[in-house]
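Q: I'm a student working through a structural biology exercise. My instructor gave each of us a protein and asked us to get a predicted structure, then write a short paragraph describing it. Mine is DEAD/DEAH box helicase. I'm not confident about reading structure output yet, so if you can add a plain explanation after the C-alpha coordinates, that would really help. Here is the sequence I was given:
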Amino acid sequence: MFSKLALHERLLRALAELNFTEPTPVQVEAIPAALEGRDLRVIARTGSGKTAAFVLPLLHRFIGEAQPRVAIRSLILLPTRELARQTLAEVERFSRYTFIQSGMITGGEDFKEQGALLRKDPDILIATPGRLIEHLNAGHLKLDQVEVLVLDEADRMLDMGFAEDMERLVAECSARQQTLLFSATTGGNALREIVNTVLDNPLHLMINQVAEMNESTRQQIITADDIAHKERLTHWLLTHEPFRKALVFTNTRAQADRLYGRLVAQEINAFVLHGDKDQKDRKRALELFSQGSSRVLVATDVAARGLDIEGLDLVINFDMPRSGDEYLHRIGRTGRAGEEGLAISLICHNDWNLMSSVERYLKQTFERRVIKALKGTYQGPKNVKASGKAVGVKKKKSALKKGAVKGSKKPAKRPAKRQQPEGAFVVSSDGHAPLRKK
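A: Happy to help. First, here is the predicted structure for DEAD/DEAH box helicase. I'll explain a few features afterward.
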Protein backbone atom coordinates (compact mmCIF):
# COMPACT_ATOMS: atom_id res chain seq x y z
CA MET A 1 0.00 0.00 0.00
CA PHE A 2 1.14 3.56 -0.72
CA SER A 3 0.31 4.48 2.89
CA LYS A 4 3.33 2.42 3.97
CA LEU A 5 5.70 4.63 1.95
CA ALA A 6 5.48 7.56 4.39
CA LEU A 7 4.13 10.00 1.80
CA HIS A 8 2.26 13.16 2.81
CA GLU A 9 -1.47 12.70 3.42
CA ARG A 10 -2.34 15.13 0.59
CA LEU A 11 -0.47 12.93 -1.85
CA LEU A 12 -2.15 9.81 -0.47
CA ARG A 13 -5.54 11.46 -0.95
CA ALA A 14 -4.74 12.23 -4.61
CA LEU A 15 -3.46 8.69 -5.14
CA ALA A 16 -6.63 7.21 -3.66
CA GLU A 17 -8.84 9.30 -5.97
CA LEU A 18 -6.76 8.20 -8.95
CA ASN A 19 -7.17 4.54 -7.89
CA PHE A 20 -3.47 4.10 -7.19
CA THR A 21 -3.50 1.44 -4.51
CA GLU A 22 -0.50 -0.87 -4.82
CA PRO A 23 2.89 0.66 -5.65
CA THR A 24 4.88 -0.98 -8.44
CA PRO A 25 8.28 -2.62 -7.70
CA VAL A 26 10.22 0.44 -8.89
CA GLN A 27 8.11 2.68 -6.65
CA VAL A 28 8.60 0.39 -3.65
CA GLU A 29 12.39 0.48 -4.14
CA ALA A 30 12.93 4.09 -5.24
CA ILE A 31 10.46 6.20 -3.21
CA PRO A 32 11.83 5.45 0.32
CA ALA A 33 15.43 6.06 -0.83
CA ALA A 34 14.43 9.30 -2.59
CA LEU A 35 12.55 10.46 0.53
CA GLU A 36 15.80 10.00 2.47
CA GLY A 37 17.48 12.45 0.09
CA ARG A 38 19.79 9.96 -1.63
CA ASP A 39 21.00 10.26 -5.20
CA LEU A 40 19.55 7.45 -7.31
CA ARG A 41 20.38 5.64 -10.54
CA VAL A 42 17.31 3.57 -11.43
CA ILE A 43 16.81 1.17 -14.33
CA ALA A 44 13.31 -0.26 -14.80
CA ARG A 45 11.17 -1.40 -17.69
CA THR A 46 8.89 0.98 -19.55
CA GLY A 47 5.40 1.17 -18.11
CA SER A 48 6.69 0.24 -14.66
CA GLY A 49 5.76 3.53 -12.96
CA LYS A 50 9.11 5.33 -13.06
CA THR A 51 7.55 8.79 -13.38
CA ALA A 52 5.58 8.45 -10.14
CA ALA A 53 8.70 7.02 -8.49
CA PHE A 54 10.47 10.38 -8.78
CA VAL A 55 7.49 12.78 -8.85
CA LEU A 56 5.95 11.64 -5.54
CA PRO A 57 9.12 12.13 -3.43
CA LEU A 58 9.64 15.48 -5.15
CA LEU A 59 6.16 16.70 -4.22
CA HIS A 60 6.49 15.32 -0.69
CA ARG A 61 9.66 17.38 -0.25
CA PHE A 62 7.94 20.65 -1.18
CA ILE A 63 4.58 20.19 0.61
CA GLY A 64 3.90 22.29 3.68
CA GLU A 65 6.79 24.69 3.22
CA ALA A 66 5.01 28.07 3.36
CA GLN A 67 7.77 30.10 1.78
CA PRO A 68 7.30 32.63 -1.05
CA ARG A 69 7.94 31.31 -4.53
CA VAL A 70 11.13 33.10 -5.53
CA ALA A 71 13.02 30.47 -7.54
CA ILE A 72 12.76 27.20 -9.44
CA ARG A 73 13.31 24.49 -6.85
CA SER A 74 13.36 21.41 -9.05
CA LEU A 75 14.28 20.75 -12.68
CA ILE A 76 13.15 17.64 -14.58
CA LEU A 77 15.10 17.24 -17.84
CA LEU A 78 13.88 14.79 -20.49
CA PRO A 79 14.40 14.21 -24.22
CA THR A 80 11.08 14.88 -26.01
CA ARG A 81 8.08 17.20 -25.94
CA GLU A 82 5.70 14.27 -25.74
CA LEU A 83 7.39 12.86 -22.65
CA ALA A 84 7.49 16.37 -21.13
CA ARG A 85 3.73 16.81 -21.57
CA GLN A 86 3.04 13.43 -20.04
CA THR A 87 5.29 14.16 -17.05
CA LEU A 88 3.62 17.55 -16.51
CA ALA A 89 0.23 15.80 -16.49
CA GLU A 90 1.49 13.38 -13.82
CA VAL A 91 2.85 16.20 -11.66
CA GLU A 92 -0.44 18.10 -11.91
CA ARG A 93 -2.51 15.00 -11.08
CA PHE A 94 -0.50 14.13 -7.97
CA SER A 95 -0.21 17.76 -6.75
CA ARG A 96 -3.93 18.57 -6.99
CA TYR A 97 -4.25 19.04 -3.20
CA THR A 98 -1.10 21.09 -2.80
CA PHE A 99 -0.03 24.63 -3.64
CA ILE A 100 2.93 23.41 -5.66
CA GLN A 101 3.17 25.02 -9.10
CA SER A 102 4.72 23.40 -12.14
CA GLY A 103 5.52 24.50 -15.68
CA MET A 104 6.85 23.10 -18.95
CA ILE A 105 9.42 24.46 -21.42
CA THR A 106 9.87 22.66 -24.76
CA GLY A 107 10.49 23.58 -28.37
CA GLY A 108 7.58 24.39 -30.66
CA GLU A 109 5.83 26.74 -28.21
CA ASP A 110 5.75 30.55 -28.05
CA PHE A 111 9.10 31.79 -26.69
CA LYS A 112 7.71 34.98 -25.09
CA GLU A 113 4.94 33.09 -23.32
CA GLN A 114 7.53 30.68 -21.96
CA GLY A 115 9.60 33.65 -20.74
CA ALA A 116 6.54 34.90 -18.85
CA LEU A 117 6.08 31.46 -17.28
CA LEU A 118 9.69 31.42 -16.12
CA ARG A 119 9.26 34.83 -14.44
CA LYS A 120 6.61 33.23 -12.22
CA ASP A 121 9.28 30.85 -10.83
CA PRO A 122 7.35 27.55 -10.82
CA ASP A 123 8.43 25.16 -8.06
CA ILE A 124 8.93 22.35 -10.57
CA LEU A 125 10.14 22.99 -14.12
CA ILE A 126 9.84 20.22 -16.73
CA ALA A 127 11.91 20.85 -19.85
CA THR A 128 13.81 19.59 -22.86
CA PRO A 129 17.48 20.67 -22.99
CA GLY A 130 17.57 22.57 -26.29
CA ARG A 131 14.82 25.09 -25.58
CA LEU A 132 15.97 25.53 -21.97
CA ILE A 133 19.45 26.52 -23.18
CA GLU A 134 17.83 29.16 -25.41
CA HIS A 135 16.10 30.71 -22.40
CA LEU A 136 19.32 30.51 -20.41
CA ASN A 137 21.14 32.40 -23.17
CA ALA A 138 18.32 34.98 -23.27
CA GLY A 139 18.68 35.64 -19.54
CA HIS A 140 15.20 34.30 -18.71
CA LEU A 141 16.40 31.51 -16.46
CA LYS A 142 18.26 31.01 -13.18
CA LEU A 143 18.86 27.55 -11.80
CA ASP A 144 21.17 28.40 -8.92
CA GLN A 145 18.51 27.54 -6.31
CA VAL A 146 17.44 24.20 -7.75
CA GLU A 147 17.37 21.66 -4.92
CA VAL A 148 16.51 18.50 -6.87
CA LEU A 149 17.59 17.64 -10.42
CA VAL A 150 15.89 14.77 -12.26
CA LEU A 151 17.37 13.34 -15.46
CA ASP A 152 14.70 11.19 -17.09
CA GLU A 153 15.76 9.06 -20.08
CA ALA A 154 19.27 10.50 -19.90
CA ASP A 155 20.58 7.91 -22.36
CA ARG A 156 18.14 9.14 -24.99
CA MET A 157 19.21 12.75 -24.42
CA LEU A 158 22.78 11.68 -25.09
CA ASP A 159 21.71 9.80 -28.22
CA MET A 160 19.96 12.94 -29.48
CA GLY A 161 23.14 15.01 -29.15
CA PHE A 162 22.27 16.90 -25.97
CA ALA A 163 25.47 16.00 -24.10
CA GLU A 164 26.88 19.55 -24.00
CA ASP A 165 23.49 21.07 -23.14
CA MET A 166 23.04 18.56 -20.31
CA GLU A 167 26.50 19.31 -18.93
CA ARG A 168 25.82 23.04 -18.93
CA LEU A 169 22.39 22.70 -17.30
CA VAL A 170 23.74 20.35 -14.64
CA ALA A 171 26.51 22.87 -13.90
CA GLU A 172 23.89 25.66 -13.59
CA CYS A 173 22.17 23.62 -10.85
CA SER A 174 25.23 24.11 -8.68
CA ALA A 175 23.39 24.20 -5.33
CA ARG A 176 21.37 21.02 -5.86
CA GLN A 177 21.02 18.67 -2.91
CA GLN A 178 19.78 15.60 -4.75
CA THR A 179 20.04 14.14 -8.27
CA LEU A 180 17.83 11.35 -9.59
CA LEU A 181 18.54 9.53 -12.86
CA PHE A 182 15.90 7.18 -14.29
CA SER A 183 15.96 5.10 -17.46
CA ALA A 184 14.51 1.97 -19.01
CA THR A 185 17.93 0.83 -20.29
CA THR A 186 21.47 0.59 -18.99
CA GLY A 187 22.87 2.96 -21.62
CA GLY A 188 26.50 3.00 -22.75
CA ASN A 189 29.84 4.47 -21.74
CA ALA A 190 28.64 8.06 -22.14
CA LEU A 191 25.83 7.48 -19.66
CA ARG A 192 28.16 5.79 -17.19
CA GLU A 193 30.36 8.87 -17.37
CA ILE A 194 27.35 11.08 -16.59
CA VAL A 195 26.47 8.85 -13.63
CA ASN A 196 30.03 9.06 -12.29
CA THR A 197 30.29 12.84 -12.61
CA VAL A 198 26.76 14.00 -11.75
CA LEU A 199 25.59 11.64 -9.00
CA ASP A 200 26.98 11.74 -5.46
CA ASN A 201 27.40 8.29 -3.90
CA PRO A 202 24.24 7.06 -5.63
CA LEU A 203 22.10 4.07 -4.81
CA HIS A 204 21.93 1.88 -7.94
CA LEU A 205 18.59 0.14 -8.46
CA MET A 206 18.16 -2.28 -11.34
CA ILE A 207 14.56 -3.41 -10.98
CA ASN A 208 14.53 -5.55 -14.13
CA GLN A 209 17.25 -7.39 -15.98
CA VAL A 210 17.28 -6.78 -19.73
CA ALA A 211 15.76 -10.19 -20.49
CA GLU A 212 12.81 -9.39 -18.20
CA MET A 213 12.04 -5.97 -19.65
CA ASN A 214 8.97 -6.95 -21.67
CA GLU A 215 7.73 -10.28 -20.37
CA SER A 216 4.08 -9.37 -20.98
CA THR A 217 4.66 -8.64 -24.69
CA ARG A 218 4.60 -11.39 -27.30
CA GLN A 219 7.33 -10.76 -29.87
CA GLN A 220 7.22 -11.96 -33.48
CA ILE A 221 9.07 -11.46 -36.76
CA ILE A 222 7.72 -11.69 -40.30
CA THR A 223 10.17 -11.78 -43.21
CA ALA A 224 9.60 -9.50 -46.19
CA ASP A 225 11.11 -9.16 -49.67
CA ASP A 226 11.26 -5.36 -49.91
CA ILE A 227 9.65 -2.08 -48.82
CA ALA A 228 6.55 -2.64 -50.97
CA HIS A 229 6.10 -6.09 -49.43
CA LYS A 230 6.41 -4.55 -45.96
CA GLU A 231 3.68 -2.07 -46.84
CA ARG A 232 1.35 -4.89 -47.91
CA LEU A 233 2.12 -6.82 -44.71
CA THR A 234 1.42 -3.74 -42.58
CA HIS A 235 -1.93 -3.21 -44.27
CA TRP A 236 -2.81 -6.90 -43.78
CA LEU A 237 -1.94 -6.77 -40.07
CA LEU A 238 -3.95 -3.60 -39.51
CA THR A 239 -7.00 -5.12 -41.19
CA HIS A 240 -6.80 -8.70 -39.83
CA GLU A 241 -4.97 -8.56 -36.47
CA PRO A 242 -7.28 -7.89 -33.48
CA PHE A 243 -6.13 -4.76 -31.64
CA ARG A 244 -7.47 -1.66 -29.93
CA LYS A 245 -4.68 0.72 -30.92
CA ALA A 246 -1.57 0.18 -33.02
CA LEU A 247 1.71 2.10 -33.23
CA VAL A 248 3.82 1.58 -36.37
CA PHE A 249 7.49 2.62 -36.17
CA THR A 250 9.74 3.66 -39.05
CA ASN A 251 13.38 4.76 -38.91
CA THR A 252 12.95 7.86 -41.07
CA ARG A 253 10.49 10.72 -41.44
CA ALA A 254 10.25 10.15 -45.20
CA GLN A 255 9.25 6.52 -44.71
CA ALA A 256 6.70 7.50 -42.04
CA ASP A 257 5.06 9.94 -44.47
CA ARG A 258 5.13 7.40 -47.30
CA LEU A 259 3.57 4.63 -45.21
CA TYR A 260 0.97 7.00 -43.78
CA GLY A 261 -0.02 8.00 -47.31
CA ARG A 262 -0.32 4.36 -48.38
CA LEU A 263 -2.53 3.49 -45.40
CA VAL A 264 -4.83 6.49 -45.85
CA ALA A 265 -5.17 5.65 -49.55
CA GLN A 266 -6.30 2.16 -48.47
CA GLU A 267 -8.95 3.71 -46.21
CA ILE A 268 -7.18 3.09 -42.90
CA ASN A 269 -7.78 5.99 -40.52
CA ALA A 270 -4.30 6.87 -39.31
CA PHE A 271 -2.16 9.74 -38.06
CA VAL A 272 1.55 10.38 -38.53
CA LEU A 273 4.02 11.73 -35.95
CA HIS A 274 7.65 12.78 -36.46
CA GLY A 275 10.05 15.65 -35.81
CA ASP A 276 9.22 17.59 -38.98
CA LYS A 277 5.60 17.99 -37.93
CA ASP A 278 4.46 21.28 -36.41
CA GLN A 279 4.11 21.10 -32.64
CA LYS A 280 0.36 21.73 -32.83
CA ASP A 281 -0.03 18.89 -35.33
CA ARG A 282 2.01 16.54 -33.13
CA LYS A 283 -0.02 17.43 -30.08
CA ARG A 284 -3.32 17.01 -31.90
CA ALA A 285 -2.27 13.66 -33.41
CA LEU A 286 -1.42 12.30 -29.96
CA GLU A 287 -4.62 13.61 -28.42
CA LEU A 288 -6.82 12.10 -31.13
CA PHE A 289 -4.91 8.81 -30.99
CA SER A 290 -5.24 8.70 -27.20
CA GLN A 291 -8.96 9.44 -27.43
CA GLY A 292 -9.48 6.70 -30.01
CA SER A 293 -10.45 8.93 -32.94
CA SER A 294 -7.86 6.92 -34.86
CA ARG A 295 -6.62 3.45 -33.97
CA VAL A 296 -3.34 3.72 -35.90
CA LEU A 297 -0.35 6.02 -35.42
CA VAL A 298 2.68 5.91 -37.75
CA ALA A 299 5.73 7.42 -36.07
CA THR A 300 9.49 7.67 -35.86
CA ASP A 301 11.35 7.12 -32.58
CA VAL A 302 10.04 10.48 -31.34
CA ALA A 303 7.16 8.32 -30.01
CA ALA A 304 9.38 5.59 -28.55
CA ARG A 305 9.98 7.26 -25.19
CA GLY A 306 7.59 7.92 -22.37
CA LEU A 307 4.27 7.74 -24.20
CA ASP A 308 1.63 5.97 -22.15
CA ILE A 309 -1.40 5.42 -24.39
CA GLU A 310 -4.23 3.45 -22.84
CA GLY A 311 -5.33 0.51 -24.99
CA LEU A 312 -2.18 0.40 -27.13
CA ASP A 313 -1.78 -3.34 -27.61
CA LEU A 314 0.02 -3.65 -30.98
CA VAL A 315 3.43 -2.33 -32.04
CA ILE A 316 4.74 -2.92 -35.57
CA ASN A 317 8.40 -2.29 -36.37
CA PHE A 318 8.15 -1.46 -40.08
CA ASP A 319 11.90 -0.78 -39.86
CA MET A 320 14.04 -2.66 -37.36
CA PRO A 321 15.45 -0.25 -34.76
CA ARG A 322 19.21 0.24 -34.74
CA SER A 323 19.85 -0.93 -31.18
CA GLY A 324 18.49 -3.23 -28.51
CA ASP A 325 17.69 -0.29 -26.24
CA GLU A 326 15.62 1.43 -28.93
CA TYR A 327 13.80 -1.86 -29.57
CA LEU A 328 12.94 -2.07 -25.87
CA HIS A 329 11.61 1.47 -25.84
CA ARG A 330 9.48 0.89 -28.92
CA ILE A 331 7.81 -2.31 -27.79
CA GLY A 332 7.52 -0.85 -24.30
CA ARG A 333 4.64 1.27 -25.59
CA THR A 334 2.52 -1.91 -25.36
CA GLY A 335 2.17 -4.52 -22.62
CA ARG A 336 2.12 -1.79 -19.97
CA ALA A 337 0.85 -2.04 -16.40
CA GLY A 338 0.43 -5.80 -16.59
CA GLU A 339 -1.59 -5.84 -19.82
CA GLU A 340 -0.64 -8.13 -22.68
CA GLY A 341 0.79 -6.73 -25.90
CA LEU A 342 2.03 -7.87 -29.30
CA ALA A 343 5.14 -6.59 -31.07
CA ILE A 344 5.76 -7.57 -34.71
CA SER A 345 8.97 -6.74 -36.61
CA LEU A 346 9.09 -6.87 -40.42
CA ILE A 347 12.47 -8.20 -41.54
CA CYS A 348 14.09 -7.81 -44.96
CA HIS A 349 17.51 -9.25 -45.77
CA ASN A 350 19.16 -6.00 -44.63
CA ASP A 351 17.28 -6.13 -41.28
CA TRP A 352 18.30 -9.66 -40.35
CA ASN A 353 21.60 -8.92 -38.63
CA LEU A 354 20.03 -6.05 -36.64
CA MET A 355 17.27 -8.40 -35.54
CA SER A 356 19.70 -11.14 -34.49
CA SER A 357 21.74 -8.58 -32.50
CA VAL A 358 18.57 -7.54 -30.63
CA GLU A 359 17.78 -11.20 -29.91
CA ARG A 360 21.24 -11.70 -28.42
CA TYR A 361 20.91 -8.50 -26.37
CA LEU A 362 17.57 -9.61 -24.93
CA LYS A 363 18.68 -13.26 -24.66
CA GLN A 364 15.50 -14.23 -26.48
CA THR A 365 14.47 -15.86 -29.73
CA PHE A 366 11.54 -14.14 -31.41
CA GLU A 367 8.62 -16.17 -32.69
CA ARG A 368 8.79 -16.65 -36.48
CA ARG A 369 5.48 -16.03 -38.21
CA VAL A 370 4.31 -16.47 -41.80
CA ILE A 371 1.23 -14.85 -43.33
CA LYS A 372 0.30 -17.40 -46.01
CA ALA A 373 -1.61 -14.89 -48.15
CA LEU A 374 1.50 -12.69 -48.42
CA LYS A 375 4.35 -15.18 -48.12
CA GLY A 376 7.41 -13.80 -49.86
CA THR A 377 10.49 -15.42 -51.34
CA TYR A 378 12.82 -14.23 -48.56
CA GLN A 379 12.52 -16.48 -45.52
CA GLY A 380 15.80 -15.58 -43.83
CA PRO A 381 19.42 -16.32 -44.73
CA LYS A 382 20.35 -19.80 -45.93
CA ASN A 383 23.28 -20.00 -43.56
CA VAL A 384 23.74 -18.28 -40.21
CA LYS A 385 26.66 -17.96 -37.84
CA ALA A 386 26.57 -19.10 -34.22
CA SER A 387 25.64 -15.48 -33.36
CA GLY A 388 22.51 -15.76 -35.51
CA LYS A 389 23.80 -13.33 -38.12
CA ALA A 390 23.78 -14.17 -41.81
CA VAL A 391 26.89 -15.74 -43.27
CA GLY A 392 28.32 -13.28 -45.78
CA VAL A 393 28.84 -14.27 -49.40
CA LYS A 394 32.53 -14.43 -50.23
CA LYS A 395 33.57 -12.40 -53.21
CA LYS A 396 34.84 -14.53 -56.08
CA LYS A 397 38.45 -14.00 -56.92
CA SER A 398 38.93 -12.22 -60.19
CA ALA A 399 39.85 -14.49 -63.05
CA LEU A 400 42.18 -11.79 -64.23
CA LYS A 401 45.27 -11.95 -62.14
CA LYS A 402 47.74 -9.15 -62.11
CA GLY A 403 49.61 -9.16 -65.36
CA ALA A 404 47.20 -11.55 -67.13
CA VAL A 405 46.05 -10.88 -70.66
CA LYS A 406 42.30 -10.26 -70.93
CA GLY A 407 40.52 -13.23 -72.49
CA SER A 408 43.48 -15.59 -72.01
CA LYS A 409 44.26 -18.00 -69.21
CA LYS A 410 47.96 -17.63 -69.83
CA PRO A 411 49.75 -14.79 -68.11
CA ALA A 412 51.03 -12.05 -70.34
CA LYS A 413 54.67 -12.01 -71.23
CA ARG A 414 56.66 -9.70 -69.10
CA PRO A 415 58.38 -6.87 -70.94
CA ALA A 416 62.14 -7.05 -71.13
CA LYS A 417 63.95 -5.45 -68.26
CA ARG A 418 65.20 -2.00 -68.91
CA GLN A 419 68.84 -1.34 -68.29
CA GLN A 420 69.29 0.73 -65.17
CA PRO A 421 72.23 3.07 -64.79
CA GLU A 422 74.82 1.81 -62.34
CA GLY A 423 73.98 2.69 -58.78
CA ALA A 424 70.28 3.42 -59.55
CA PHE A 425 67.38 2.16 -57.46
CA VAL A 426 64.73 -0.21 -58.76
CA VAL A 427 61.44 1.08 -57.31
CA SER A 428 58.15 -0.65 -56.69
CA SER A 429 55.16 -0.17 -58.98
CA ASP A 430 53.68 2.48 -56.70
CA GLY A 431 56.69 4.63 -57.24
CA HIS A 432 57.58 4.89 -53.55
CA ALA A 433 59.46 2.11 -51.80
CA PRO A 434 63.00 1.36 -53.02
CA LEU A 435 63.46 -2.38 -53.46
CA ARG A 436 67.10 -2.96 -54.20
CA LYS A 437 70.19 -1.27 -55.51
CA LYS A 438 71.99 -2.37 -58.61
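A: Here are two points you could use in your paragraph. The two ends are 93 Å apart (CA to CA). The chain has a mean pLDDT of 83. It's a good idea to check both against the output above yourself.
Q: Great, thank you!
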